[in-house]
């Protein structure tokens, strides 16, 4: 422990430290995220200052963060070349909480797990270092002061002293973390690398891990300056130049951890298609992954964030098997720092196929009073994302061929949306596409309606296992013969989806297999109908008697053209398709 001035932590700091330690002991790793973020903030500050004060960078022109491990001492150091802290800064910034309302905020924390989770997911700050450290030494050099050391074991007080070593840092801050018993995992390069890449992949400044490496070199004989030109000397030289045995040397090298660029912060106009696709594979961690469409946008107002939303080329195989759809669906960053990808709150379940990166300008749940209403921000982000997704699909649907590709991969997701998302059911209805008797291409409900015959009131559809089977139905055949268009519903959930949608632009959906089907163009000559029924009565009676166990009644119909008979469901019964679906569920 250094000798120096002793200071007490402000009461709020002690309370916050306790909360942080008690709530986050399961994810101590976030200390690294917090310290790198602070380094990055400090680098932002000095860069900003240098815009108006060109001398500011003279103390050290490099802007970066370097992490190094000293295994023997069980110490990690995190060094930034940012703005640094004066003695006064050290005392104030690392001993008090400047944010207004912090005390009230701390009062509102009930100690519930939910509260704690919120604190944990968003910025918790410098004090999280005590999750892994039993002693921390902060050495800092600001342009306006000498180099000072702040040191604490987190128990009540901290010490500040002028660094006896002098101004060795040039400019910036070095945090030396003496690890607690049991936290040795953070001494491993591989572990640190994994964490830096998880949380700090998109930090604007280079982050290095200093590694000790070995290499084998030819041992070099020191070349002495040859002044002796005599024959004997030359013989001596020749002897000396016989190669010595190779030797292994140890050296240190800084490996760059964050070469991926956060393209979402750029102006969309300046980002090329290739860059979007490259970033998509970075985001998904799948080198060959491609996206069929994306949207890059900025949201302002109730919550400020930038986002890129991608629709993958292919739907994941397990899309509907996932218990929790949200997993790695939306990656939330706050100012380029990764926060979480396991929140189900950002998108409805049916949009589980999207891949989204969201970067909020302000930690919506930072440790301050406003954060008590934390979920407001998440709800606002949710709303924006859904709206942008509909915009994206609207644009995509203008290109019939591309959109057919979307329907092939995600048609079922849309239908799931129709079942689960009442608020957007009208919009989803417009995005659905069906096979139809009109052409081999998909049709929207909108264009079906535009082709409806004069006097036609309903949208006609028929269900079956596949389009070929549907086409062979006598019901369909008779409608086609009369010049009606029929939608071919070959997905088992289609019928339930239609029940949810109810109607489209006031047009009801009519299954052509139902007995009550009204085409709207029948001649309603009651006389001739009666005559027909009388004429065929013996046949009807015979059929009814023969099929007694399987059918309810037999009727003369005018709906058929070439087929002699058809089996229909009554209005309250299930259609053959529904029966198939129900049987499937019962299994
Ligand atoms: P926050 O980053 O949200 O302000 P922290 O607890 O992480 O809260 O840090 C507290 C303060 O300490 C920062 O606001 C900053 O003024 C100062 N600070 C922390 N780390 C550094 C650093 N590496 N360089 C300069 N200042 C720092
Ligand atoms: Mg911070």
From TrEMBL:
Keyword Nucleotide-binding annotated: yes
UniProt similarity note: Belongs to the heat shock protein 90 family.
Coiled coil spans: none
Single GO term (MF): ATP binding
KW Endoplasmic reticulum (keyword) present: no
This protein's name: Heat shock protein 90 cognate
Positions bound to ATP: 34, 38, 80, 85, 93, 99-101, 173, 369
Region (Disordered): 219-243
UniProt keyword terms in alphabetical order: ATP-binding, Chaperone, Nucleotide-binding, Signal, Stress response
Domain of life: Eukaryota
Residue stretches making up the Histidine kinase/HSP90-like ATPase domain: 27-183
Bias kind Basic and acidic residues: ranges: 232-242
């Amino acid at each position: 422990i250094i000798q120096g001035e002793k200071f007490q932590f402000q009461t709020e700091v002690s309370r916050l430290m306790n909360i942080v330690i008690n709530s986050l002991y399961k994810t101590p790793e976030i200390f690294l995220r917090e310290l790198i973020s602070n380094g990055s903030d400090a680098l932002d500050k000095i860069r900003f200052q240098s815009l108006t004060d060109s001398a500011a960078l003279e103390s050290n022109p490099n802007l970066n963060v370097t992490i190094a491990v000293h295994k023997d001492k069980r110490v990690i150091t995190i060094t930034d070349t940012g703005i640094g802290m004066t003695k006064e800064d050290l005392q104030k910034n690392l001993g008090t909480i400047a944010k207004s309302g912090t005390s009230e905020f701390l009062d509102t924390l009930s100690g519930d797990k939910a509260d704690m989770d919120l604190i944990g997911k968003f910025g918790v700050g410098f004090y999280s270092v005590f999750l892994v450290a039993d002693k921390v030494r902060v050495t800092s050099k600001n342009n306006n002061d000498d180099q000072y050391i702040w040191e604490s074991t987190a128990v009540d007080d901290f010490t500040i002293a002028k660094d006896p070593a002098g101004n060795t840092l040039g400019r910036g801050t070095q945090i030396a973390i003496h690890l607690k018993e049991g936290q040795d995992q953070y001494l491993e390069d591989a572990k640190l690398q994994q964490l830096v890449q998880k949380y700090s992949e998109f930090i604007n400044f280079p982050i290095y891990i200093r590694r000790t490496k070995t290499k084998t070199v030819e041992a070099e004989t020191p070349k002495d300056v040859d002044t002796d030109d005599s024959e004997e000397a030359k013989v001596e030289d020749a002897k000396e130049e016989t190669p010595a045995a190779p030797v292994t040397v140890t050296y240190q090298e800084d490996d760059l951890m964050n070469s991926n660029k956060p393209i979402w912060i750029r102006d969309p106009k300046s980002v090329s298609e290739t860059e979007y696709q490259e970033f998509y594979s970075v985001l998904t961690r799948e080198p060959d992954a491609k996206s069929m469409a994306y949207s890059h946008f900025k949201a302002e107002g109730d919550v400020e964030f930038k986002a890129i939303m991608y629709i993958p080329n292919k739907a994941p195989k397990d899309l509907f098997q996932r218990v929790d759809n949200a997993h790695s669906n939306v990656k939330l960053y706050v100012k380029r720092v990764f926060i979480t990808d396991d929140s189900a709150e950002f998108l409805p379940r049916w949009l589980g196929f999207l891949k989204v990166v969201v970067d909020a300008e302000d930690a919506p749940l930072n440790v301050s009073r406003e954060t008590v209403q934390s979920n407001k921000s998440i709800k606002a982000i949710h709303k924006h994302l859904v709206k942008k997704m509909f915009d994206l699909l609207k644009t995509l649907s203008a290109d019939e061929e591309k959109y057919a590709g979307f329907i092939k991969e995600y048609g079922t997701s849309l239908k799931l949306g129709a079942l689960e998302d009442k608020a957007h059911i009208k919009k989803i209805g417009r995005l659905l596409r069906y096979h139809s008797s009109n052409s081999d291409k998909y049709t929207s409900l909108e264009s079906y309606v535009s082709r409806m015959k004069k006097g036609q009131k309903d949208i006609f559809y028929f269900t079956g296992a596949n389009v070929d089977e549907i086409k062979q139905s006598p019901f369909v055949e008779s409608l086609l013969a009369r010049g009606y268009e029929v939608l071919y519903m070959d997905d088992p959930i289609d019928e339930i989806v239609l029940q949810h949608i109810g109607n489209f632009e006031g047009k009801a959906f009519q299954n052509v297999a139902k007995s009550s089907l009204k085409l709207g163009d029948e001649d309603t000559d009651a006389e001739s109908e009666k005559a027909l029924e009388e004429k065929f009565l013996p046949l009807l009676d015979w059929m009814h008697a023969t099929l007694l166990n399987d059918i309810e009644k037999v009727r003369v119909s005018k709906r058929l053209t070439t087929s002699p008979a058809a089996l229909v469901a009554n209005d309250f019964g299930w259609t053959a398709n529904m029966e198939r679906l129900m049987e499937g569920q019962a299994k």
